[in-house]
Structure formats: C-alpha cells, structure tokens
Amino acid sequence: MRSRILVIAMMLATSRLAVASTLFLNHFDAPLGAGAGAADYAVGNPNQQIGSPNGPGGTIVSAPAKFGAGALDRTTGGRVEYNTAGNYNINVGTVEMWINSSVMSTNTSFVGLWGTDTTTGNDIRMYLYNTGSGRTLGGYMLGGAPFWEIEQPVPTGLLTDNAWHHVAWAWDLSAGTTATWWDGQLLRNTPDSGTVNPRALTATLFHVGENQGGSAGWPGYMDEFRISDAVMYPMGGNFTPPNAPFAVPEPASIGLLMTSMVLLVRRPRRKLAAGAMVKTG
Q1: Measuring CA to CA, how many Å separate 33 from each of 62, 81, 212?
Q2: pLDDT tens, 96-116?
Q3: Residue ranges per structural domain of the chain
Q4: Burial class (CB in 10 A: 0-12, 13-18, 19+), 268
Q5: 269 pLDDT more than 50
Q6: What is the pLDDT of residue 96?
Q7: Which residues contact 207 (CB under 8 A, 6 or more apart)?
C-alpha cells in the first residue's frame, strides 16, 4: 500500500513540477486592453504593454474557443504585447499554443505566432509561412553569427481549416537542442542553419499572434498560449496534445506535496510488541 501511495505521489509531483515550469500563461478568457492585467499567470509583468498609436490589444470571442470561455481573435488585428523580463527564458523553454484559421491550408503569407521586439536586431521568432513546399513551422534566434533557425513543412493532411491545432517549439541552448511539433507530431529536432547556442538578446517586449514589431499578424484565432522555462515534450518523439486548459502554477501546493513525499518515504514501520497478535483477515 505504501509503495502504491508513493507512486501516486510521485506522479502528482511530476505533474505539479511541470506546471511550476510555467513562466507565462494566457487562457484568453477575459477582455484585453492597454495596461490590463490580461495574463492569467506571469512571473514577470502580466499587464499588456500596448498603447497609442498601436491600438487595442485584440478581441476575445466566445466562439470558437478550444478551452474555457474565450479565444483571442486575431482576424481583425490588434496588438497583444507583454514584457519579456521574467516571462521567458532565453536559455531553455517551450512556447506553445492552439491555433485555428479558415485559411490554414491556403494562406501563403508569412505570419507570426510569437516574437520579441528589439531595436538592435537581436530577437526570437516563431512563425508559419510557405516555402514553396507547403506551410512551414519555424523558429529562430538572432544575436550571434550565424543565427540559428529551425524550419520544417507541416504535412498537408494536418493543415485542417476551421479546426484547432496545437503547435509547440522548444529549445535548450546548453544542450544545443531544439524541436518543433504540430498536433503532437514531431516535425524537426535539429537546426537547419546555425548552431543552437546562447544569444545576447536585448528584447524587452514580445508579441502574441504576430511578428516582432507587430507585423505579419496571425489570420485566425489563438487559445491557451503558454511559455515554460523547460522542455515540455520529448525532443526526439511525438506526444499527445493537452486535452484540458493549462493549469496555473501553485507553488505552495508543490511545496506541501514534496514535503508529504519526504515524510511518506521516511515514515518508519511500526514494530510489533513481543507476543502481539497479527491480524491476517
């Protein structure tokens, strides 16, 4: 019985620790606006950093929504911009989201899914565009010579219009690894240019659903946008996309759970007194 409880506790701890890797999370269930604390969770600043003349920060709509009460409507534009400080880790991380578009299979434009904004040219981007061989999911980091990039066409059969798709990009600069996934299917796990290594990035803002500087907006909807400071999925394989909204971290609960595990492991077995009856039924 004790071993069974220990296994369950360890599974819960793994799940909790995965949640603890979250740096930034937006369910897009509440209204957006300049200066609003729109993010559901942020280690850094949860407020949108938009203002005149950049316009309002997108629109929240109830349908379609992958999870919860709403989704971000990017079909009409609107800048959604946050501070980078504390909200992402340049050395290791995973950026993921659910996307939906009526032109998923036909749009040939370069569109940004996430990107930092900097005046020095040192930035990081996640994007979709047509390379001539189909829609390609890509990401790259500037700030070194040569910059590194990862790109891979998405299988045509996965480019379903008016349907939700989970996209993810992870990197670990110390290990020199990176990977992209579409609906949990590994697209690529090696850079096709440059070497994955630390960059001296100076970006202070990032954009959700658009390229850096607010250009190349995503022509559709977005839900459950999350940035983690860990590689959340296996670099060399596939995974099953999340089937529920991302959980908001609860550091206190994690500490209590880990303490319970330690006490469980260290709990001594009770010795029977001499001549005591042992219950067998």
Answers
A1: 17, 10, 19
A2: 999 999 999 888 899 999 998
A3: 22-246
A4: exposed
A5: no
A6: 98
A7: 79, 80, 81, 112, 114, 115, 116, 117, 213, 214
Q: Indicate the class that CATH gives domain 22-246.
A: mainly beta
What's the pTM value of the predicted model, to 2 decimals?
Answer: 0.83
Cα(215)–Cα(206) distance, rounded to whole angstroms?
12
Write out the two tokens for 191: 């850079």
Kindly report, residue by residue over 164-222, the tens digit of the pLDDT. 999 999 999 999 999 999 999 999 999 988 889 877 777 888 999 988 766 788 999 99
Provide the pLDDT for residue 4: 45
**Tokens 């960059």, located at residue:** 199
Which value, in Å, is the radius of gyration of the alpha carbons in the chain?
A: 22
What the block records as the tokens of 118 is: 């900097």
